[in-house]
Amino acid sequence: MKEKFKLKHLDIVLAEGEKDIATLMVDILGYKNSIFGKAKFFVKNFLKIKVITSELENIDFNSIPLNEDSHIKRPNSINEISYLQMLNLKGLTQNENNLSMSNYMAKVIAISTYSENRVSLYKPDSKSFENYVENIMNVSMFDMIALYTWILNDIKVTSKEWEERFMSVEVVDKDLEKAGGAGLSQFNVVNTIISLCNDFNVNDEDAMYKSYNLVMTNSYSKAYSNFVQENMRVKKEAEYAANKK
């Protein structure tokens, strides 16, 4: 019976207090509001589904194995999604929202997997994306919880990897810091798009659809180049100062 639970039922499972068992009876067990149904079907299954729902309430998301055979396909790495998708994904996961838990998870999954499951170009405001989110809501709750967990974990892993790479070639400009240079971070996206347009000879829309991995690799390459040049400059200045003594 548990395998019949869909992602859209997660809100009922996690609800505090009295749960909407009636909806589960209809959706999962196909309960019909008839005299026969009330007398036989309802009495037999109401307590059963209530017990199952109570058990699922304390479910550990991390304990659910990823179903590689799910018809909702995923990228091999979250790095493979487009730069636009990653911006939308981080915007959704890092900011507060008023979505229900099931709808929030469905959108996280939809953003992350859209390109693996749809032919059309990812557009967050399109009807195709809206329909895809709705489709995910009606997929196995367990499969989607596992996929959602994988996405969050992979974001964490890849973010840490990129952060460590950039930190290793970070050039600290103390004058820039004193002038409030940290505030320039809000312009990083604009600068990245401009850089992609120039480096790959594409317009800004096409630049947004470059893979996140390509975007980050391109940015890292430039950061590394700046790091090497800065080290060479510091070394030459030190040699020049030493020769003057």
Kindly summarize this structure in a few lines:
The chain is an all-alpha fold and 245 residues long.
The rough form would be described as elongated
| Count of alpha and pi helical runs | 11
Largest sheet: number of strands, sense, barrel closure: none
Number of DSSP E strands: 0
> Unreliable segments (pLDDT under 50, ≥5 consecutive)?
175-187
CA-CA gap between termini: 84 Å
* Share of residues in strands: under 5%
Give a verbal description of the structure:
It is a single chain. The protein has 245 residues and is mostly helical. It folds into three domains: 2-59, no CATH class; 63-163, no CATH class; 170-244. It is built from eleven helices and no strands. The radius of gyration is 25 Å and the shape is elongated.
Keywords:
elongated; mainly alpha; 3 domains; 245 residues
Secondary structure blueprint with pairings:
Blueprint: H1 10-14, H2 21-29, H3 35-56, H4 83-94, H5 101-117, H6 127-137, H7 141-168, H8 174-178, H9 188-200, H10 204-208, H11 212-244
Helix pairs in contact: 2-3, 4-5, 5-6, 5-7
